[in-house]
Each structure stands twice: as structure tokens, then as C-alpha cells.
Amino acid sequence: MEDIIGKLQETFKEEAYELLTELEAGLLELEHNPGDMEQVGRVFRAMHTIKGSGATCEFHEIAAFTHELETTFDKVRKGKMTATKELIDLALTARDHIQSLFDAFYKGGSADESKGAEITATLKKLFSDSAGKEPVAPAPASSKGKSTREEPAKSEPKRILIVDDEPTILLTLSYALRSSEVEVITASRLEPAEEALARYAFDLVIVDIRMSGILGIEGLELLSYIKRYWPKTEVIVMTAHGSTEIKQEAYDRGARYYYEKPVDITELAERVRSMGIPVKG
Q1: How far apart are CA 2 and CA 26, in angstroms?
Q2: I want to staple 75 with a disulfide (CB 3.0 to 4.6 A). Which of 2, 80, 89, 138 is the partner?
Q3: Which CATH number applies to 158-274: 3.40.50.2300, 3.50.50.60, 3.60.20.10, 1.10.10.10?
């Protein structure tokens, strides 16, 4: 497992610095035009990818710190906060701190941990101060599968949800499929998978059939759940315990593709691209 993480971290090195450049460019554009929602989306996507890829590569401190920044800009993206000069300046400082954390790992040295805590405290204060200014929306009707979902705008990335209880598979697939145009969310259990499905609109779900460690078909049940409430969402199922019967049932329930582990990632990526999702592969 350590070898896999090490390889992922080394592979991510170039992308990490490219994302920091992209984040800085978006923030500098926002300085000139704070109301430019295209740049807000650009900044948010860079933050989200740093957080997601950072977590995948086990840069936990970077992922946790960037999450606070991303959460604040998510409010800007949804019109619940304004990209003020104070927020943009703070985000640029946060960007520099993220680079210092990457530099500490890739180039040696150390980062000022107190700086991260200071930035996070200021972000939380901005977040808190904006709460009383938000319009109160009516609560949605409580019905399973009917929660208000965040639909992707045309300029936003495609979304993939990967559900598997094997950390190695989550790490490998999420890194292989994520790109600047594809957002990947992972879940190791059914409950967070269902929460993600209720919140976001996914173009594709990749799910393991057997999730509990016993002879179960939790993944097939999730497949049926998805097809019932979001029939346009494509589903690929995987299993290490396949059979002709299981394969047929997966297709009967609406699976687009069925794989038995170990999965050929190159072939999987090609099939995902054929579905109109521009994964890295």
C-alpha cells in the first residue's frame, strides 16, 4: 500500500503545481472583476481538485486545509457570499500556504503550521459572518432519493462516484479517472454514497457489488436505487466474486458495464471516455 501511495504522490507532483498556478491565475482575475462567476468556478474547481487529489494521495493536512477554502468559495459560487477583496487576498495567502506544504514534502524543509491555523480561523469567521445575510430557502420535502441535488452547470466538470470498500481501488481509480474536466468523489460505504447521490448529480457511478465482507449484493441494491431515482446516471459494477448469474442480474438492473476484478484500468478508462466523460486514464 505504501508503494502505491508513494507512486501516486510522485505522479501528482506536476499536477499539484499546475493546479496552484491555475488557482493563482483565477484569483488574480477575480481581483479585477469580483463578480466574474466563470472565474469563481475556475477557482473552486482548482481548490476542489487539490483537495480531492490531495486526499487520494494521503496529503491529509493539505486536503483538510483546502477543504475550508473550498467550502467558503462554494458559498460564493452559489451566490451566498461575495468575493470581497478581503476574501480574495486571504485566498491568495492560502494558496501560498498550500504551496509551502507541497514544497515541504517534495523539496524538503518545513511549513509554518501556525499560518494554516490562522488562515483557517479567518475563513471560518468570514463564513460565520455571512451566515446571517443568507436568504432562508424553504426546506425541501423529505423523501428518499428526492433531496435537492447540486446539478452541474454546463461549464462544470463531469462527476463520477466510486463506491468500494477497498482503499487501494478507491485510490487507484480516483487518480486514474480524475482530470481537469472530471470530478471524482469516493465512498467506502453505502451510507456516504447515498448522501453524495442525494447532493450531487453524477454522470457515472462505479460500484463494487460486495461491500460488507459477507455474501451480500449491496452494490446491486445501490444500482437499483440509482436507476429508480436517477435513470440517466450510468452505472458500472465490479466484483471479485462474479458468476454468470450475478453478471446477468447486474445487466437486468440497468448496469452499463460489468467487470470482474482485477479491472484493467486502461480498458475501463476507454469505456468511460466512450460515454462522453473525458477521464485522464
Answers
A1: 34
A2: 80
A3: 3.40.50.2300
